[in-house]
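Re: that chain you flagged

S.,

Sorry for the slow reply, it's been a week of failed gels. I finally had a moment to sit down with the sequence you sent. For the record, here it is as I used it:
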Amino acid sequence: IGLIGDMTRSWSPCIYMGMRPHNYGYPEDFAKSEEGKAQIKRMREAWIADELPKWLGFLSDMIDSNGGTWLCGGDKPTIADCMAVPAIRTYTRGHVDYVGVDCVEKCNPKIVAYVERFCALAEVKGRYSTGIGASA
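Prediction finished late last night. Pasting the C-alpha cells below so you have them in one place:
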C-alpha cells in the first residue's frame, strides 16, 4: 500500500500543476496560459516516460516475488490490490491530458495482465467502462 501511495505522490505535481498552480509558485491562471499548458505537458510526458516504468517495475517485481498473481501472494487479491488497480488504471482511462491510454501497456505488459486479472474477478467484472480491464 505504501508503494502505491509513493507512486501517487510522485505523480501528484503533474496533476496539481493543472489544478492549483499557485501551490507551486505560479499564478492561479497559469494552467490556462500557453506557457502553463506547455509546462504541464512536459511534466506529464516526462513522468510517464521516466517514472511510470520505474513504479510499475516495482509492482511487477512484487507480484513476481509473491507467486506471480497478486501483490501480496495467495489465491485472492488483498486490499493492496484493491488500491493498486484503480491507481494504475488512472493512466489508461483517457481523461488526463498528455497521457496516452496505452502508456501502461507500452511499458509493462505484466502489469496489464495483473490489472485484467483483477478486473475479471466476478466481484469487479463489468464495473469499468474505460481503460485497462474494461473489457474483462
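What I noticed first: Helices lie at 2-19, 34-65, 79-89, 103-107, 109-119.

Talk soon,
D.
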